Amino acid sequence: MTLSTHIDCALAMTSPGRAVWVALSGGLDSSLLLTLAAAACRLHPRPLYALHVDHGLQPAAADFERHCRRLCSRLGVPLFVERACVDLTSGLGLEGAAREARYAAFARRLRPGDTLWLAQHRDDQAETFLLAALRRSGVAGLAAMPALREFGGATLARPLLGVSRTVLEHEARRRALSWSDDPSNDETDVDRNYLRHTVMPRLKARWPGADAGLAAAAAHAGEALGLLEELAEEDLARCGADPGRIALAPLVTLSLPRQRLLLRHCATRLGLPTPPAKRLESLLSQLGARRDAEVRVSWAGAEARRWDAAVWLLAGHAGRDGGEGTEGVGVPEGQWDGQTPLQTPWGERRVRLLGVGEAAPGLLSLRPRQGGERLRLAGRGGRDLKRLLQEAGVPPWRRETTVVVWHGDQTVAALELVEGRWVAVAEGWRGV
Fold it and tell me: Are residues 93 and 174 in the same domain?
């Protein structure tokens, strides 16, 4: 298959009439990809744009941008430049932090339905597979880079993933294409560069098809990953179909590998960091703890709790650091007319509270839960709010996200904000 055929096939997979973007670093790979894309979009008209991300990490950055501007001017392709903010304190390392900043820049520019083409090739895929193996990654890591994936409503595609670097170099020189080399790519203290300049040449000298073999292994892992995701979805359906609340009884009937698979899959579904192996084993070892035991396992950016015959997966650390149960922080306070949507850290809550037989109840007061509140319920008399929260199945870490509604000196309703549901409404009132 020729390079032009690779590009034509990739173009045929994009949404008709939607923009195609090329991530343009200025190096050989992306410069060639943009050149090929421009030719394809002239034959098959489609909006085409180039996107250059300036990480601001090295003096040569200005040279990269100048090259990108010259190339785009020659090709007649509009260029957009995004300035990235690389957080070197994130704990991800320089390469990881730069990647996070780069993808954040992509997200700022892309719109739903757009496609962004990345210039990674077969040699990059082989390196990624080796790095994942050396880091003891599971199947998801060994699958390396997907040729196509969803990205916030847009699509990320790698049209050159099956093409070797040698072929790309030959084509670039045949076209007398110019590019701007990144000097940091020669720094072999970086793991990927060490593999590229030291390990891969020796592997290819012994096994000439090493890059193709490693890339094929990544493709096999990708296929296996797809099958595992199908299996995890089937297990999730048996466990209640809610990735944030996994029913315990069917979960414990699964083998340990399937339990691990399901919990990692649910974390991915929720957009949470997957639990490290030791944290995951700690959680699984406590599934059989006493019913009243407070099982809580945390890792960076997420946590799991076992409560009410289920395993709950949560963002952040519930009860602190912006997690679900921020202990009253952000709970609306002040006056309320019973009609206006409430703005909360968990989104807008379009709820209403009406006095029975009245169009509007007059002025109400919103207060965080303090403890000891009681409501008079129709046919039940006075009831303690703490007991009502328990009866409603509100998890303990969410009970402090409950806003209490007062009418004068009477407690008339309680609204749990994470799910936006009325937990209790007093006699003579109606929550909508």
Answer: yes
Question: What pTM does this model have?
Answer: 0.75
**One domain for residues 95 and 208:** yes
Looking at the structure, tell me whether residues 138 and 13 fall in a common domain.
Answer: yes
Q: What is the pLDDT of residue 358?
A: 56
DSSP 425: E
Distance from C-alpha of 377 to C-alpha of 42, rounded to nearest angstrom: 70
Overall number of domains in the chain = 3
Claim to verify: residue 247 and residue 306 sit in the same structural domain: yes
Beta sheet of 48-54, edge-to-edge order:
79-83, 48-54, 20-23, 115-117, 154-157, 148-151
pLDDT given for residue 359 in this prediction = 47
Say yes or no: 308 and 408 in one domain: no
pLDDT value of residue 105:
92
Distance CA(61)–CA(228), nearest Å, equals: 42
Residues 90-122 as b or e (16 or more Cβ within 10 Å = b): eeeeeeebbebbbbebbeebbeeebbbbbbbbb
Q: What is the pLDDT of residue 80?
A: 96
Give the rounded percent of residues in the chain with a pLDDT score beyond 90: 58
Residue recorded with tokens 């048996």: 238
Total Cβ atoms within 10 A of residue 195: 20
Domain that holds residue 343: 334-431
CATH number, position 279: 3.30.465.60
